[in-house]
Amino acid sequence: MNPSPEPIRIARVKDGHVEVDGAFDAFARRIHELGAKCGDFRLRMALLDRETETALDAVRDRHGRIVRPQEAAAIRTRRTRSALDGYRLDLADSAGPLLGAARSALDAMPPTAHTQAWRDILDSLSTSHMEILRTAGQPAEREAQTVWAHLAHWAENGAIAAHLADLHHQPGPEFTAAEAQQWTERARVAQARGALDLIESWYAADGRRITLAYLVEEDTSEVIALTGDPDAPGWSVIGRYDNEYVAGKTLPRPVPPGVLRADGSSRFNRPEMAAEIPVQELLRDVTEAHCAGDVSEALLTAADQGRGCGPMTHLHQLLYEAARFSHALESVQGQRLGARLDALGRQLEFLAREVQDAASDLGATVAVLPPHRVPKPPRIRPRPALETTPPPAPPRNTTATARRL
Predict the structure, then answer these.
(1) Is the pLDDT of residue 315 over 80?
(2) Please, are residues 35 and 98 in contact by the beta-carbon 8 Å criterion?
């Protein structure tokens, strides 16, 4: 099936309301259904992934290492079989039409630097679809490992096809030059006094960044859309809408958002994490320690930068990765926050080295806690001896006693 790329026509009338012509025709409903099927499969895979991780916890040690690999392989094989059943239910008949609609929408888009990358994604999704359908209903362990990669690919990147298929939508009219100038001036005044509240943003097929915002003036607020970076000069307002729903119907649809790393891991195909001792366990080790060497070992573990990185090392790696994400936003605020996170990462890296030095010095003291730091005995009530007569029970309240009370 190759659906027609006929657009959904939408027009905004003068009072700010939207007239929808053909928005609920058969083609539009079909596109919506196909996208919903793709979302259903991703949700199914997310739930299945969570259930699988819970089952794998039973075959891991306290540091997260798999200690019973055969049982872990059986758990993953059952996961793949369940995912296959879900794919046949959600996408076996819908993946082909969805890819066809996405390709036709891509053909109608103005060419960009990443258009070919999207085509490559659609081609790989098509290949994965065929491989999944070829797989038997109850694959063996080796076959299950192979087909899982295709299922994970659809769960992770099927949304790209759904986004592209939805681009058949024809956006409504935008402000004239005079209207845009008037509303942009109002919005800049509101931004200067902190009364321009951003809601969400996306990129349109023509490359523009579109941001929805509330323009707050006195006791009222207006939903407006602007293009450009709200934190940089040159942005302008392109429309005003009664509410966010009307704005979504009128504005250009979003293209698929980008990723931080093109070759990054998928949620559904992550490598096994390296074993790490939790910070709470290290804190407990320090609390229960008697000698300086034990505390030194806990600190060195926390700041370890070797293969089994400690929590402090992972934390500054997290900051560096968040900084990289902020820089990748390619916005003024993103660059500022990226520089800030980079600085925090460097500070934490320096702090980790200081912790290592202090831990080494502490261990070199070979000291122990002085004996006057005696532990308190536990508050345990002794049980009565076997020959001891238990105390008599208190008298029960009689009716006369109750009346006197």
Answers:
(1) yes
(2) yes
Containing H/E element for 277?
none
Q: pLDDT, tens digit, for every residue of 352-385?
A: 999 999 999 999 999 999 999 998 888 888 777 7
CB proximity list for 125: less than 8 A, separation 6 or greater? 95, 99, 153, 154, 157, 158, 160, 161
What's the per-residue H, E or C state across 115-152? HHHHHHHHHHHHHHHHHHHHCCCCCCHHHHHHHHHHHH
Rounded distance between C-alpha atoms, residue 241 and residue 252, angstroms: 14
**SS3 call for 390:** coil
Ranges of each domain in the chain:
8-170, 177-250, 279-364
**Strands (DSSP E) found in 248-389:** none
Total number of residues shown for the chain: 405
Give the integer Cα–Cα distance in Å for 55 and 242. 49
Q: How far is CA 59 from CA 45, 56, 64, in A?
A: 21, 5, 9
